[in-house]
């Protein structure tokens, strides 16, 4: 009887290991092509990504590959990058008071027009994470006089763009598009 029980346990263990392996394979097969590589490429220690000092608008090193939005929290700059790693557009932004940690994300939600946490009407909101219940995303202020610095006492995650840059982001960063945050 002990041999029979041991055989059953061994068989069940082998079946469980096989099932976990199969499910792992299935899960990896549903990740969009290249996204896993981008996540690994951006999962390096949170050090400042190498820059081309002769060309400060050049795409930072270690920012992944393929179609993505790259955001540098230290340089307050965004790059919209094509599938073939070509920079389609780069522009300066004004961050909120809460920065996202370096890492790989995806666009999770979008809103055409809302009021920001600072009370400013914004459009083309593209969200990709949250930090301590503060939503982090890109947006453009609707009013031209809303370009002043945010109140540091208010916790905001809005990364503000010009309206032209906000339009470009809105067209590019649809749900599921990777966002890579670097220092």
Brief summary:
With 183 residues, this protein is of the alpha+beta class.
Keyphrases for this structure?
alpha+beta, 183 residues, 25% helix, 4-stranded mixed sheet, 5-stranded mixed sheet, globular
Strand content: 25-35%
Evaluate the radius of gyration.
21 Å
What gross morphology would you assign? globular
Largest sheet: 5 strands, mixed
Order of strands in the sheet with most strands = 3-2-1-9-4
Order of helices and strands: HHEEEEEEEEHE
What is the arithmetic mean of pLDDT?
A: 80
Number of separate strands: 9
Which regions are unreliable across 5 or more consecutive residues at pLDDT < 50?
16-47
Provide structural commentary.
There is one protein chain. The chain is of the alpha+beta class. Helix content is 25%, strand content 30%. The strands form two sheets. Strands 3-2-1-9-4 form a five-stranded mixed beta sheet, with helices on both faces. It starts with a helix and ends with a strand. About 17% of the residues have low confidence.
């Amino acid at each position: 009887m002990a041999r029979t029980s041991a055989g059953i346990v061994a068989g069940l263990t082998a079946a469980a290991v096989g099932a976990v392996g199969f499910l792992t394979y299935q899960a990896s097969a549903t990740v969009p092509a290249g996204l896993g590589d981008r996540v690994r490429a951006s999962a390096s220690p949170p050090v400042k990504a190498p820059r081309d000092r002769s060309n400060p608008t050049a795409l930072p090193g270690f920012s992944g590959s393929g179609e993505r939005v790259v955001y540098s929290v230290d340089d307050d700059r965004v790059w919209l990058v094509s599938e073939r790693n070509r920079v389609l557009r780069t522009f300066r932004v004004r961050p909120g008071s809460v920065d996202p940690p370096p890492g790989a994300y995806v666009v999770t939600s979008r809103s055409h027009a809302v009021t920001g946490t600072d009370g400013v009407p914004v459009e083309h909101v593209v969200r990709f994470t949250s930090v301590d219940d503060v939503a982090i995303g890109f947006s453009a202020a609707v009013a031209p006089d809303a370009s002043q610095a945010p109140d540091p006492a208010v916790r905001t995650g809005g990364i503000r763009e010009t309206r032209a840059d906000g339009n470009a982001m809105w067209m590019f960063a649809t749900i599921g598009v990777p966002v890579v945050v670097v220092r």
